[in-house]
Known about the structure:
38% of the residues lie in helices and 31% in strands. The protein is built from 6 helices and 17 strands.
Amino acid sequence: MSRIQILLCVLYLSCTPKVNPFDFGGHSLLAFATYIKGDTPFPAFSAVLMLDDIEVGFFSSNHQKLIPRGPMKDKHTLGPSYQKNAMSVFTVMYEHMRARTHKLMYHYNTTYGVQFLQRIFGCDLLDKNTPGRMISKEAFNGESGDEKYLSIPDKTLETEFKWPGAWTALQSESIKWVIIDFYQPICIKTLHNLLHLNTKQVMRKVKPRLRLFQKGLSHSAGAQVTCLATGFYPRHINLTLLRDGQPVPDHQITGGQLLPNGDGTYQMRKSLEVSTEEVQHHQYTCTAQHLSLDNKLDISLDHEPRPGAKYVAIGVVIALISLLALIVAFIFCRRRCVGTGMKKEKKMEHEHKQKGEESSQKLNLNLLS
Length: 369
């Protein structure tokens, strides 16, 4: 793997396992960790600490401390308790990811070149600031791997193993209590403290702008019905496309990815391809539930004109504009012509008057002589 690919993976976390934002509740604290084996200009181990979607810290095997990032840069240096907890968690994670990388290299028979293991690890708070889940997801060389979820309220552990080394029942029980007694208190306490320090950034709420529209398809006689929510913050949103009051099945819908806007807000769209008959015989609506809304937001379908109708409308507008231009030009020319004629008449009248005066003067002179 080239250094450019490694750079992209480390800086942009493009090879980390995908995280659905709806996996988390009101707020989350996640560490995006990367272990690299091989000759690269990057640290062997690094971790980016994210409060919701805001980077608040960075840890690496080179520095051996948590470095404040983002809004935390403007605050006091993280205290000893933060550094102690960071060292405890990331040191254990570093050693575990290094050992796990060697096992996966043996499993995939990839003993040469640069190898990297990435892990997302953290916790979340539910809407009422109650602990939600601990989560761990891994990827090796860009391929998604094991996933583990611990529900904090009922202390149940769910695992999905894709690599060799699945836990026995005894191992699962033992690891569950390690997470509950060690990782979970540190994560939840740190999350509460960071929320307090960054209230202005993470507590802001921006309402979504919701639109449901229909667009004709160029490759068929049907149409695409799209539900779009944009401009909202925080990122958690529940967007539902309904047909006759019932949610459209997920397998019929395209989209649904959460995307960032340039102003720090987010957008999401869900689309459904339908025939012309379906649009005419069914009622399509879109609903959104968001932390900024007291009640869910509902909107009905805005029918977009068919392509032919659109062109006809454009033609009518152009014709009306042309007709109006002709009328204005006619009125202008008529007024100009009338004005020119009146000027000529006045000039002729003036010349005739002057000639009359000259004749009268000559007549008077003759009489006097």
